[in-house]
Amino acid sequence: MKAEITPGQTSDYRGYDAAMDDDLPQPKVLMADRGYDSDHIREDVEQRGGTPIIPARRNRNAREPVDNFLYALRNLVERCIRKLKIAWHLTTHYDRTAASYMGFIELVLTRLRFRHLS
What we know:
Layout: H1 14-20, E1 29-31, H2 39-47, E2 51-53, H3 68-72, H4 75-86, H5 88-94, H6 98-117
Parallel strand pairs: 1-2
């Protein structure tokens, strides 16, 4: 798993390059929201041998078809993010550095993983 911290005003697709630069296994499918809809991301995923499942932005002229069944699985990721946001209030009061914030995120994710396994 890979996580990056970007400024709040940064567009979603700018964090893509930072997340994909590591030596992680290549994705077979990239499920993302409209914020990641760019030709650069689509081409990069296809060059890596994956399939982009990204709905088109409203202003895109050439719309790519989206597998709605696979895109619906993205809901699992959204649920995980929601659980992180429930614990978010702790980070806003006590975490002032990126390192302590990421440590908190890893702690919460580990706790969620153990809860899921039991």
